[in-house]
Amino acid sequence: MSIRVVVVDDQALVRGGFAMVLRIHADIEVVAEAGTGLEAIEVARQHRPDVILMDIRMPDMDGLEATSRILAEADWNVRVLILTTFDPDEYVYKALRAGASGFVLKDIPPDQLAIAVRTVADGGALLAPSITRRLIGQFTERVEVDAAVAGRLERLTDREREVVIAVARGSSNAEIAGELFIGPATVKSHVSSILTKLGLRDRTQLVVFAYESGLVEAGARDIGH
Known about the structure:
The protein is an alpha/beta fold.
């Protein structure tokens, strides 16, 4: 079964380019395009896509508000992948907090775009690129620790807290396994357990939780390359 995708960007050339790149893949079907946040909500309702490529800055309604509304009302499993430029954008962090599963740069190589779509469609989160780490680190410096969120840390074991810290710093399962001297399968099991205990959907929300709970402090260590 193909992955149903909606592409949202206010620039027709950019939007068409992404759609064209994705359409060459047999397992990906671009079911609609939209040029504003309001249009994105409408086509999402109509086509019920698996993945939405969402630009942030658009007229009528920005991608942040559109993401929040789509995810709040969706009664199907839809993932939002934010499109952004290289320059750090505070809206990107806010979109992750609103439930987006990650983001890709607009100059992403064509072959990597399809991989990104497949990753989020499969329930993964795009947190590996160093630019993601910089963005999260930069904008979570402004986030105040939420006492209620911090209280949820009590649900985790010491080992699980170590895993959360590693995930928040952008480490892959393989890297976490090496850091903690455990197997990759064990890391995967820990992550799954942590998400269940905290009521979170994916690694993206876990990263946001780590900063908002105060478990990880932005800027405490270099998390970019």
